[in-house]
Amino acid sequence: MTAFPDSPFGAMERLTLDPAPLAVIRHEGIRIADLRDAFDTGYGAIAAYFHDGTLVPAGPAVAIYYGDPMGVFDLELGFPVATAPTDPLITASGASVQASTLPSGAAAATTHIGSYDGLGRAWMGLAEKAGAKGLHHRGIWIEVYVSDPTEDPEELRTDLILPVA
What pLDDT, in 10s, does the model give residues 4-51? Predict the structure, then answer.
């Protein structure tokens, strides 16, 4: 099963993630309070490279959290792309768009429909279901923003993917 399905995931589905090329802006040592600014500037800056043809999108926006998302963590914001950039691309704001890869291997996934405010509860539910099946998260949390953020907040679709061991 792909990390980018057309249909929503169920309550908890197991899948094997294949590595996929990404174009991302990396943020190291940030907190939840920093997310709005990172998201507001990051996705638009990368999308500018879609408009000029430098990058070709291959899926919806992603955010990959490394570490404890309730504390200090590292973050990659970006998109799956046909081919990752070979050299960093410098945005108008001075940020660096770099090549990365979607983490691969075993994962548990679910879909959250609704406001981003409900993502914390959805993550807790997925982690609990995975734990009940004997799956242990690897400290990586992937959000796939399937819906355009300008849609009605109650209609937003966010796929949550938890790499597991």
Answer: 999 999 999 999 999 999 999 999 999 999 999 999 889 999 999 999
Paired strand residues for 108:
14, 162
Q: List the CATH number of the domain containing 20.
A: 3.20.80.10
Query: Is residue 45 included in any domain, yes or no?
Result: yes
Domain extent at residue 156: 14-163
Closest listed residue to residue 18, CA positions, set 7, 2, 38: 2
* Confidence category of residue 1, pLDDT binned at 50, 70, 90: low
Residue 44 in tokens: 């638009």
| The pair of three-digit structure tokens given for residue 32, joined into one six-digit string | 């939840």
Question: What token pair was written down for 55?
Answer: 């990058």
* 35-59: burial string, b at 16+ Cβ within 10 Å, e else: beebbebbbebbeebeeeeebebeb
